[in-house]
Design goal:
about 200 residues, mainly alpha, transport, manganese ion transmembrane transporter activity
Length: about 200
């Protein structure tokens, strides 16, 4: 898997964290450097860890399904992308965390349990991506590092620009992220069916 594909996958996965970073900064009166660091570090760390966990879970099953791995990768990425797009159209919910995330951002969401919840909620999709990469026999460490760094960077960016943007922007980012994940799944499917 080349760097451009990994980068696009990382950006797609980071859209939830980016959207939540925007929403989080909108909920804060003043965004401090410590708040930016806490949120971006934890979202990046969890985005790094989740694909590794998924990879180890999926790798043990890859020998049994090697003939179908590209279909599984396509299906998982399409489901994740479709879920992101679907959730972006829910008007009564925050961009990427549901009702519990709404409660998490009422105080200072960059502290304690709220921070952990946001980090897990925005990185859970990366777990399935790790399973997909195991089935494609991709070494997980490099993609996971790229995913973590990209997520951390976009979280910083999201918090810095969040006060200037409306909350509607978060749903647009989720739509773009979902489309990117579906496109990557389609690319994997086409490569394995026609070019392997």
């Amino acid at each position: 898997m080349n760097f451009i594909t990994i980068l696009f996958m990382a950006v797609g996965l980071a859209m939830d964290a980016f959207a939540v970073s925007i929403a989080t900064s909108l909920s804060l009166v003043n965004v401090s450097k410590r708040q930016i660091f806490r949120l971006s570090f934890h979202t990046g760390l969890f985005q790094f860890m989740m694909p590794v966990i998924g990879w180890y879970l999926g790798f043990s099953f890859s020998a049994y399904i090697s003939d179908y791995d590209h279909w599984i990768a396509f299906t998982l990425l399409s489901i994740i992308g479709g879920k992101m797009i679907h959730e972006s159209f829910k008007e009564d919910e925050p961009p990427a965390g549901g009702e519990q995330a709404a409660a998490a951002v009422k105080k200072d969401p960059t502290r304690g349990f709220s921070l952990m919840f946001i980090a897990v909620a925005t990185s859970i999709d990366a777990l399935a991506v790790g399973v997909s990469l195991a089935m494609l026999n991709v070494n997980i460490w490099y993609p996971s590092a790229v995913i973590g760094v990209v997520t951390m960077s976009l979280s910083v960016l999201g918090m810095k620009i969040g006060e200037r943007l409306g909350s509607h922007f978060g749903s647009r980012m989720e739509q773009i992220g979902g489309l990117i994940l579906i496109a990557i799944g389609l690319k994997i499917l086409i490569e394995h069916m026609y070019f392997s």
